[in-house]
Every structure is written in structure tokens, then in C-alpha cells.
Write a structure and sequence with these properties.
Order of helices and strands: EHHHEHEEHHHHEEHHEHEEHHEHEEHH
Helix content: 25-40%
Largest sheet: 4 strands, mixed
Structural class: alpha/beta
Length: about 350
């Protein structure tokens, strides 16, 4: 069973109004607000923390959006083709026996199936062609979390950010506790877009004028990259082993020539190329559809404001930090930005909880 829902038809009325303050320190599993006994900070430091504490998840749900729901008895292959056909990156899973949502099917599942079962272009991937979602989950759940992580529409966006980063997930279902309906799938991108649209209501923090090399927001050591002469299977191995969401593709001179993301992998299903993972990264990049992120770069001398605006306007998940020679020096992702702008100012102990 495959359901397609329109968020406009199921978005509930919020009787308390769109904006509400959540006392997140009273919620189980949520971090406390900063103590008044802590040393004095830059007054601008927690402006985004307060902004997201004062807006709930309901606020960030678009008036209309596409949402797919898969029954766990659906064949894995049909589910992935449905994701591609609808331009959706993940879908909640409904178990009709338990009468509840039990998890999410994402591009990561597609990558894990290909990586685990691929043998050669001459051998069909039986597990992808024949398995049902519930069969794959029985195999995969031996090595992963079993419970669905979700959030309610009246929870604060701060709680949503905390849940996304703490659990190292990229998609958070918003579920109405009364009806049990999934209303929306919150992502880092949607949250930053919400800030980009409505952030003009708050004073612009002074630290946005600092250069990225000053604030050191991002990943700058042991950057995962892939050579353009490597195979797609090599890239899948890096995705699985390093748990990264995108790989800068570099040439023999070490210059970045493309960016290959997890979303590009799902396009192998659209092109029916998933049985040929021996193709080179150069071939994979040249053969992918035109609707890709491309290589959006940033430079050490650019300010945090410029970088946030570039990511928000381009609606991408990350920028590749390069030097004047286009050599990869780091990755600045949405997770890095939300951690630095929202969670870290809420209390230094949160940072410790992530390690």
C-alpha cells in the first residue's frame, strides 16, 4: 500500500495560536535553559536559540506539501521508485498489524541495500528486486534503532533541532498525537529556510559578520572525498563507513570538480543503473539528471551571514570550503550551523552530550 497525502488537507487547527513558548527544560530528554549563574555572554549569542524556542513545529509546516506513506508489505524496489517519481527523499512506514507508524524508509536504506548485496553488473540484486520493506527491516534493525523518533506539532523548533542532532537523523516526522497522522517531515533544510524567511523579525546578531575561518563552524579534519576515477561502489562504501551525506569528487590535482550526495544515489533507481556500481564517479556525475546541487563553494574569508544566505537561497545541505586553488579544506553543513547557532549557546553541556 502506498498513500500520498497533501499536508493542506490534514494540517490541524492550532487552538493556542502559531507561536508558543516551550519550557524545554520541563520536557523529558530535552536540555535545560542556561543557568543564570553562568558567566556573562555576548548578548547576541543566544538570539537564534530563543527564536526557535518561541516557535513550534506547527509554524514550520508548509501550507501544502507532498507526503508519501508506505505500508511495510510494499516491495522495497517499488518504494524506492515511488520516492524517485515523487521527488521525495523519505517516507514514514505504516505497519498494518500493529496499526501504527514503525519507522522511516530513506535513501540511506537504498544505499545500505546496494552496498550490502551488490556483487557485479552480471548478478541481479535479489534483495532489492524481491524483498518487502518488512523483510529488509528485519535484517537492518539488527544493527540500528528500532523505535520511530518523532515530535508533536506543538513542540518547539528548538526541541526538533535538538532531536535531529542528538539522534544524528536528517528527517523528523511531525505526528499529531490526537489523530496519529503524520503531518510533515521536518528537516534541517526546512528549519533553516524558516529562519531565513522569518528571521528578519529579530535583530541581526553581530557574530554573523565574523569570517568562517574565525568561528570555525564546520568539519576541517579528515574530510571524506572520493576520486573521480573511483567507482560508485567505492563512494557507497564511504557513505556507509564514514556516515557522511555527501562527497566532494576530486581530480588527480586534488581540486573539487563535483559533489556526489546520497540523493544522487537514489537517481540510480530512476536511471536503472543500480546494477552497475562499477562505473566511475566521473561517469556517474556526467550521467546524472540536471536537477542536482552542483558544487556550491565557500571560502575562509567569507562571513557567516554570506554562507547562511547562500545555503538557504540555494536550498542545499552543505557548502564545500575551498582555498583559491579549489582544494577541499572543509565542509560547512546545515548540522554544523544549527549546532553552532542554536544548541551550543543553550548550554555547553549539550555539546558534551554529543560526544
Amino acid at each position: 500500500m502506498l498513500k500520498e497525502l497533501n499536508a493542506r488537507s490534514i494540517k490541524p487547527h492550532n487552538p493556542s495560536g502559531h507561536r508558543r513558548v516551550r519550557l524545554t527544560d520541563l520536557q523529558q530528554g530535552s536540555p535545560p535553559l542556561p543557568s543564570s549563574t553562568e558567566p556573562a555572554r555576548d548578548p547576541d549569542e543566544d538570539v537564534y536559540t530563543k527564536f526557535f524556542m518561541n516557535h513550534c513545529c506547527y509554524d514550520a509546516i508548509p501550507t501544502s506539501s507532498k507526503l508519501l506513506i508506505f505500508d511495510t508489505t510494499l516491495q522495497v524496489k517499488k518504494a524506492f521508485f515511488a520516492l524517485v517519481a515523487n521527488g521525495v527523499r523519505a517516507a514514514p512506514l505504516w505497519d498494518n498489524r500493529q496499526k501504527c507508524f514503525v519507522g522511516m524508509l530513506t535513501i540511506t536504506d537504498f544505499i545500505n541495500i546496494l552496498h550490502r548485496y551488490y556483487k557485479s553488473p552480471m548478478v541481479q540484486i535479489y534483495e532489492l528486486e524481491e524483498h518487502k520493506i518488512e523483510t529488509w527491516r528485519e535484517v537492518y534493525l539488527q544493527y540500528s534503532i528500532t523505535s520511530l523518533i518523532s515530535i508533536t506539532p506543538d513542540s518547539s523548533l528548538f526541541d526538533a533541532i535538538y532531536s535531529l542532532l542528538k539522534n544524528k537523523i536528517h528527517r523528523l516526522p511531525v505526528i499529531d498525537p490526537e489523530s496519529g497522522n503524520v503531518l510533515h517531515i521536518l528537516t534541517h533544510k526546512r528549519i533553516l529556510k524558516f529562519l531565513h524567511i522569518f528571521g528578519s523579525m529579530i535583530p541581526k546578531p553581530r557574530f554573523l559578520q565574523k569570517r568562517i575561518e574565525e568561528v570555525e563552524i564546520g568539519t576541517f579534519k579528515k574530510i571524506a572525498t572520493v576520486q573521480e576515477t573511483a567507482t560508485v561502489y567505492d563512494a557507497l562504501s564511504i557513505f556507509v563507513e564514514r556516515r557522511v551525506s555527501a562527497l566532494p569528487v576530486v581530480n588527480e590535482q586534488g581540486k573539487v570538480v563535483a559533489l556526489y550526495s546520497r540523493f544522487d544515489v537514489i537517481n540510480l533507481a530512476a536511471q536503472k543503473n543500480y546494477n552497475n556500481l562499477n562505473m566511475t564517479m566521473r561517469e556517474a556525475v556526467e550521467g546524472r539528471s540536471c536537477c542536482v546541487e552542483g558544487v556550491l563553494k565557500c571560502y575562509p574569508h567569507e562571513t557567516l551571514e554570506i554562507i547562511i544566505n547562500r545555503i538557504a537561497e540555494a536550498e542545499v545541505h552543505r557548502l564545500v570550503l575551498v582555498d583559491e586553488e579549489d582544494t577541499v579544506k572543509g565542509i560547512v553543513s546545515l548540522s554544523d550551523l544549527l549546532q553552532a547557532l542554536v544548541l551550543t549557546p543553550a548550554g555547553s553541556w549539550i555539546t558534551r552530550a554529543f560526544h
